[in-house]
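Would you mind giving me a polypeptide sequence along with per-residue structure tokens?
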Amino acid sequence: MEATALRRELGAHLRAHRELVSPEQAGLPGGGRRRAAGLRREEVAALAGVSVAWYTWLEQGRVAVSRQVVDAVCRALRMAPAAHRHALELAGFRPTETGSAADGSVRPETRALIDGWPDTPALVLDDRFDILAWNAAHERLWGDPAALPAERRNLLLWLAAARDRLPPEAADPLLRGLYQHFRASTGRAPDHPRAAEITRLLAAERPDAAAWWQCRAVTDFPPTTATVPGAGRLTFTLLRPVAEPERYLLAQTPA
């Protein structure tokens, strides 16, 4: 979607939420007659710390906006996390990691989901593909990720070192495709120290693949089938759980 269309969509998103918030919900005095439901533009502008004219242009899709202003307007409009995240994405910003995303925890619902797959090995990953959780089927097939040193408990590093379990014809397409997705996933935070550390460790583990680690290509990882000794042909699929969109699930299903 072009930038102008995205700005218009953001304006419509803000306007729709403005009409849903009462003055009382925003901490303003209620009462008095209003021509329309919800907050007035001047009230949102005052709560967000911007001028009325500028906020009007924002709703009309006429101006670009900083992340700080998007956050301030979303707070003024009492947006739920999903709506706030959508506003940031429309404005071209990556949502800030909070809660479980920031501390590396996994929601019970996500754990219950993968535990409900008794015959499908599965991992829960963060945006840098660090391994946060796994199910019994994965542990039976691949061993316990908890046995790995913390700095190497990462899907890419595990694949790079899995020569004893996966032949190159199986491991390399997975590793290269996942690394290109990793670059897309972390590209909006290129200075993150963990992302840089993972690339450095990959280069040390697989110096023969130096061209991969230096390549600027990015892509979405497509379902990829590989022959796994002892398990047959498995299709590796990367998923995003709706209830925890800051996480990835890697499911390994029989091809």
Observations:
- The mean pLDDT is 89.
- Strands lie at 122-125, 131-134, 224-228, 232-239, 248-254.
- The two ends are 35 Å apart (CA to CA).
